[in-house]
Amino acid sequence: MQQTAKASLTNALLISICTPDFKGDEATESLAELARLVTTLGFKVVGTQSQKQSSTKKVNVLGLGKLAEIAHLTGNQGVVDGAEDEDSFEEIMDEADFNDIPSDNLPFACADVVVFDCDLSPSQLRNVENQLGVEVFDRTGIIIEIFSRHARTKTAKLQVEIARLNYVAPRLRETSCGDKERQMGKGAGETTLELNRRAVRDQLAELKRELVSVQNEMKGRRTQRSELFCVALVGYTNAGKSSLMRSITGSDVEGENKLFATLDTTVRALFPITQPRILVSDTVGFIKKLPHDLVASFHSTLAEAHDASLLLYVVDASDPSFRAQLDVVHGVLEEVGVEESKKLLILNKSDLLSIEQQQALMEEFPEAMMTSARNKADVSKLHKYIVGIAQDEMIEEEIIVPYTAKGIMGEIRSKMSVTKEDYEFDHIKVTVRSSAIDLARLKKRMLSL
Ligand SMILES: Nc1nc2c(ncn2[C@@H]2O[C@H](COP(=O)(O)OP(=O)(O)OP(=O)(O)O)[C@@H](O)[C@H]2O)c(=O)[nH]1
Ligand SMILES: [Mg+2]
Predict the structure, then answer these.
(1) Taking phi first (over 0 means left), then psi (-120 to 50 degrees means alpha), and beta for anything else, what does residue 250 get?
(2) Which of 66, 239, 265, 328 could bond to 235 as cystine, CB 3.0-4.6 Å?
């Protein structure tokens, strides 16, 4: 693999390419987010640089002057060419303005890797790597690396590996020999590069087959649950979905202060347990410029959100960019075709906001619920809200259960909410609140008795 993040502490230099469409606060916030992504991978950010360009599509993403500054920061290991039409590289190096480097980084630690806050084409990446002589990552490369490390279940591992191979395939390079050099004994005259590409294609086909079979199994499990009221927590990475999930289900779902802590959908019952049970699912978090392949590969993981009767959009209300993050979430959900039935915006992490800030937000989002996953009262308010919505979805009906109808009362109590019971001479008159499906099933069973 061309891009493999190093496990030991690696010094990373971050670079933002500012274009007419991407500059100012947006670029600064995005760079701060990249710093968090890179830190999640265990890298240490030793500095940031920005470069103005008309677009990110130029063959050489860095101008010669900026290249000189960055080459200086990475220990001048690369081969910078193209200086013939401008001043010589050495002259530029002599005159380069290194003031962009934060002063607290001086004397700065030499950067081992350079990370761009945009996507780079395979040739752009190769050029800049040759010029700087250090490993270069783009944003997608970093996100894919995090996903690879955090995937736990078989489905997530398969999905991430498919996305990773799709990303890696066009970036594969000839290893020891030149591109055109034929390998001895490789049959059919293929280069190692061609052989590697074919191996990746075969591997992709195999992984996709495996994924289909695992997904069919998952579909079966979802169908079994389909009669229950399901709630899905969706939102930007680090918003607090897993923490809220843990609070309202009393489960041990991990919530961590790292990006993309959750990659697998987890389903738990709302706690305290309700009758019938209400299921809550935690889903993968989103991020700006989420690689398209990853969105596609998480289609099935997000099927939980697809089937949910209630979607809880969780945002970190203490993050000034949460509005833009919410737009990203809407965009991704639209892309994977999640049609929402009911939804609630949850302004989480309220404990990090002042009373005035909370009031202003409630004025801006009057329909939303302000919560802190760390506040018991907020958690029980959310629990109550979910139960209320689930109850609204139910039908109330009176059922006559003869004393001779064995097992029926047990079934009613396990699946429905009993609001009234009257014991008559030869039957029980039960008033229940239930989903339409459960009610129909019960009636069918009673007819067959
Ligand atoms: N102060 C505060 N911190 C919170 C709150 N909710 C979550 N956190 C913290 O925010 C960080 C992220 O929480 P998670 O629950 O892992 O976030 P997530 O949305 O599941 O993130 P991904 O799995 O990456 O999508 C953790 O350090 C939590 O402890 C809250 O209400 N208040
Ligand atoms: Mg999570």
Answers:
(1) left
(2) 239
Answer whether 373 contacts ligand 1 (Cβ < 6 A).
yes
Stretches where the chain sits below pLDDT 70 are 1-8, 80-109, 173-190, 220-227, 252-258, 261-264, 297-301, 303-304, 339-341
Going from the Cα of 393 to the center of ligand 1, the distance in angstroms, rounded, reads 30
Q: Please say whether the structural domain 10-137 has been given the CATH code 1.20.1250.20.
A: no
Q: Which helix (H) or strand (E) holds 27?
A: helix 24-40
Q: 0.90 cut: is pTM over it?
A: no
In the sheet with 369-370, reading across from the earlier edge strand, the strands are: 266-269, 278-282, 229-235, 310-316, 342-348, 369-370
The pLDDT, as a whole number, for residue 38 is: 94
Cβ proximity of 35 and 15 under 8 Å = no
Backbone angles phi, psi at 253, to 5 degrees: -60, 130
The residue contributing the CA closest to ligand 1 atom 11 is 257
The answer to whether 80 and 89 are in contact (CB under 8 A) is yes
Beta bridge partner(s), residue 137: 115
Cβ–ligand 1 distance for 379 under 6 Å, the answer no
Cβ contact 61:116 at 8 Å: yes
Residue pair 335/371 in contact by the 8 Å Cβ criterion: no
399 close to 420: Cβ distance less than 8 angstroms: no
Give per-residue pLDDT as tens, 377-391.
Answer: 999 999 999 999 998
Per-residue pLDDT of 81-108, as tens digits, reads: 544 444 444 554 455 444 444 434 444 5
What pLDDT is stored for residue 252 in this prediction?
Answer: 67
| Ligand 1 pocket mutation pick from 147, 234, 243 by most atoms within 8 angstroms of CB | 243
Contact 2, 168 (CB under 8 A): yes
Q: Tokens 């929402």 — which residue?
A: 340
pLDDT at position 54 is: 92
The CATH number of 225-391 is 3.40.50.300
